[in-house]
Specification:
Number of strands: 0
Helix content: 55-70%
Strand content: under 5%
Largest sheet: none
Distance between the termini: 14 Å
CATH superfamily: N6 adenine-specific DNA methyltransferase, N-terminal domain
Number of helices: 7
């Protein structure tokens, strides 16, 4: 993706957060980062599933069998209010406690909270992040 197009998508997402009531730049970056991370977790789980199926091996899921509904690929297909409820009441608690608290990721996520105030903003953010090319090396940072 051309850098100017990517920058435009991020700028648009930033404005969505600002118009949605989140005006602190640190909070905007934090919330976008959490959502991008959740998408990357799902991408990783999908790759691991395919690799395990191809090799005929078991693998440890990031999202356990009873938490598959928290994956990005499932979450993005939910309606706004349901998505917001799942994100606030299920996904963020999972991120805080289910990501190996002794790891660097676990320590980073121990205080993670969803501060997105309404379903419309969450849907706009999820749709925008879905369009970002997160699997391309240049966009992962």
């Amino acid at each position: 993706m051309v850098n100017s197009v990517l920058k435009s998508k991020i700028d648009s997402l930033w404005l969505d957060f600002h118009s949605g009531g989140i005006t602190n730049p640190i909070t905007v970056i934090e919330q976008i980062s959490y959502l991008m991370f959740v998408r990357l977790l799902d991408i990783t789980d999908s790759r691991n599933e395919k690799r395990a199926a191809r090799l005929g091996k078991d693998f440890k899921r990031i999202f356990p069998s009873d938490k598959q509904y928290l994956r990005w690929s499932h979450l993005r297909n939910q309606g706004g209010e349901k998505m917001l409820t799942i994100v606030r009441e299920r996904l963020f608690p999972f991120l805080r406690t289910g990501m190996r608290p002794d790891s660097a990721v676990g320590r980073f996520l121990k205080d993670a909270n969803c501060l997105i105030p309404n379903a419309n903003l969450l849907v706009r953010a999820v749709n925008a992040i879905e369009e970002l090319p997160l699997t391309e090396g240049d966009t992962k940072g």
